[in-house]
Amino acid sequence: MTVTGADELREEVRRRYAESARAASEGSKGSCGGGSCCADGESDAAKFGEALYDAEQRGQLPEAAALASLGCGNPIMVADLHEGETVLDLGSGGGIDVILSAKRVGETGIAFGLDMTDEMLALARANAAEAGVRNTIFLKGVIEEIPLPADSVDVVISNCVINLSTDKPAVLTEIARVLRPGGRIGISDVVAEDRLSAEQRAERGSYVGCIAGALSQGEYEAGLEAAGFEQVSVEFTHEVADGMHGAIVKAVKTSQPELKGLPVVQPAASAGCC
Ligand SMILES: C[S@@+](CC[C@H](N)C(=O)[O-])C[C@H]1O[C@@H](n2cnc3c(N)ncnc32)[C@H](O)[C@@H]1O
User: Fold this and answer.
1) What is the value of pTM for the model shown?
2) Closest C-alpha to ligand 1, atom 18
3) Got the DSSP string for 185-227?
């Protein structure tokens, strides 16, 4: 893909999700007007969005946050978050997974949301305020250049966003950079069976609709291993189109980055030293 083509595609994605955020702010389901969001209408209601969260989780959320859900899974169910941890949600949208994470990690932890769309950030901040969680921080930026320091995050989650990236190797490298050694990922995404070519994926749905840009299972595994992850698994959970699935992606950043050729962050010299 040319740089111009990638920039145009990213702008198309941003416009589409800005429209979705506006619809959600006005109280309607976060539909994307043209119907090509991460759900293509009523028939997809069980495959995308709030239906993928259980009643207890939905009970912890303001109605507007649940309605704004555009994900293809439930990363909180797999991330196994603990009190005091730092969590980062890539492409946080209306904030549903950030709010649930903030509740799991408690006041001693922190939940960051990162999104490139101003309208989504405004919606997420309003939803977090309504949910009464104070340990959330929403950052503006792109997932290909995460605006956080190296080794600063315990867990990276994401829900139906990496398929939308025009530079997936950059996203996986950035995840490895911001995670602490031994840090983990719990990601939901649309993933294709290896038998489908890029053209066949594009025949099954649009790029902004989370289908055409999906990696295959093998591509995801290889990409994570190349970025320095171990214990990589990509498991299909439910079919969203012929040969395309909602999937749970798990992996752990090596605890010995130097052996994988990854940059090693040196601890800061203590004050008054030397
Ligand atoms: C399908 S929605 C999912 C939102 C949320 N994760 C959820 O489950 O409801 C995709 C979100 O990712 C954001 N996004 C897409 N590509 C991005 C990128 N390259 N960098 C940052 N945010 C991005 C969009 O603005 C949008 O809010």
Assistant:
1) 0.91
2) 142
3) EEEEEEEE-TT--HHHHHHTS-TTTTSTTPEEHHHHHHHHHHT
